[in-house]
Amino acid sequence: MLHTCLATGSPRFAGCSMRSSGAPCPPWRAAVQACHDLVVGGYELVCVSALRAEFTQARLQNLKTLGFPIEIVVATGNDVTQLSPKASVIEKLKPVAFVDDFLPYHRGVPHGVHKALIRREENGSPNVGPELENVNSQHLNLREFANWWLAGGAVKSMFTGGKT
């Protein structure tokens, strides 16, 4: 089974924040469905999260409670230096894709791994500037990425220089 690593941090990854009641808002459900679609498409999803190791099980339980089809969470810590704290884990996993909503976490992700950025608002976002050249594709949310990926978007982008 091919790995697609989804790096999840805050609910912003799904394009919304959690309601005070704790109930998922519709974009969160869309992210859950996008993940289920990727699994049906033959991909195993691994959550690579920039949190301390002692929170790994809590993150896994939160993902399962929300309905994400994720069985593995890898915690990396969150020190962003010249390389992403996630880069060494991604190198070991050798996934076909790495999806994250924080541009600095794409630093040092190996070539050969499709780097997909889930965009954030530009006002106050770290997802601006010349580092955008280091990602292979950009998407409004996880649902858009999954639709694009499952429709063969990554294969098609190879013929346009790897960018979409």
- The largest sheet has its strands arranged as 3-2-1-4-5-6
Oligomerization: single chain
Number of strands: 6
CATH fold description: Rossmann fold
Given helix and strand content, the structural type is alpha/beta
Q: Give the strand content.
A: 15-25%
Fraction of residues in H or I helices: 25-40%
Q: Which whole number gives the mean pLDDT?
A: 80
What gross morphology would you assign?
Answer: globular
Number of domains: 1
* Distance between the amino and carboxyl termini: 25 Å
Which blocks of ≥5 consecutive residues have pLDDT under 50? Answer: 8-25
Q: Please summarize the sheet with the most strands.
A: 6 strands, parallel
Helix and strand element order: EHEHEHEEEHH
For this structure, what is the CATH class? Alpha Beta
CATH homologous superfamily grouping: HAD superfamily/HAD-like
Using only C-alpha atoms, the radius of gyration works out to 15 Å
Query: How many H/I helical runs?
Result: 5
Task: Indicate the topology.
Blueprint: E1 2-6, H1 26-40, E2 43-49, H2 56-66, E3 72-75, H3 87-93, E4 97-100, E5 114-118, E6 137-139, H4 142-150, H5 153-158
Which key features would you list for this structure?
5 helices, 6-stranded parallel β-sheet, alpha/beta, 164 residues, 29% helix, Rossmann fold
